[in-house]
Amino acid sequence: MEIKKIHDQHVHTSYSEDSSANLEKYIQIAIDLGCSYFVMTDHLDFDIPMYHEHWIADYDEQKKEIIELQKKYKNKITLLQGIECGYREGYENNIKEVVFHRDFDLINLSIHNYLDLDFYYKEDFLKYGINKMVNLYLEAAIKALDSDIDFDVLSHIDYAFKTAKQIDPNIKFNLFENQLVVLLKKLINKNKTLEINTKVQESINDKNHTKYLLNLYYSLGGRNITISSDAHVESRYLSRFEEYKQIAKEENFTYLCYFIKRKKYYFNI
User: Can you give the pTM of this predicted structure?
Assistant: First the structure.
């Protein structure tokens, strides 16, 4: 299946608790940019420590809106529905229950919190230390891959490192290479896809970090990558894709992966 332009595969709309972005505005932007597809991946996160609540998008209501908007834009773009499943130890069956009853095109798996810790905010990093927090994040990611939750893409593998970098600008990701290698090997063995998240890369703001991550993954045999913006506002759709496509090419990657009805396709770069 050939497409002229890769679409963004990590996008949040007002169906997510942390976004007010309008679905139809996103679609119009994607059309203007020449995308053949648009997919939204709103949050599924259980028991968020910071808020002591669940973030569960109304996927059924969203599906109804997708059907109506597809009628409106039927000759211009194909609309898909994805999900970002935040792994939470002890809630594996809850996650699978949400996914089982719906026909998602794409499942992103991510880690936002673990135990009573949240990897977005600096407070836990300052309390327990950077090294411990990043190691716990990678430990949670390894547990997520060892679980029986099915998924297509592992999102923002460097999510906790981004917060660590905000505290210590000199820290390097290779400090955690032992656990990174374990995690990446599991990802490769499962034949899943690694996401390069431009929102996280922009925060880390170090091209060498991105190159290190891609080089390590490639050296272990990983070839399946995707580039995603993690947009929570419409203006970030496809943010800096050309820049990170070029970095991927420099690290010997020749294609990006995209998903329709959970089937993997390839976009040459």
Answer: 0.96
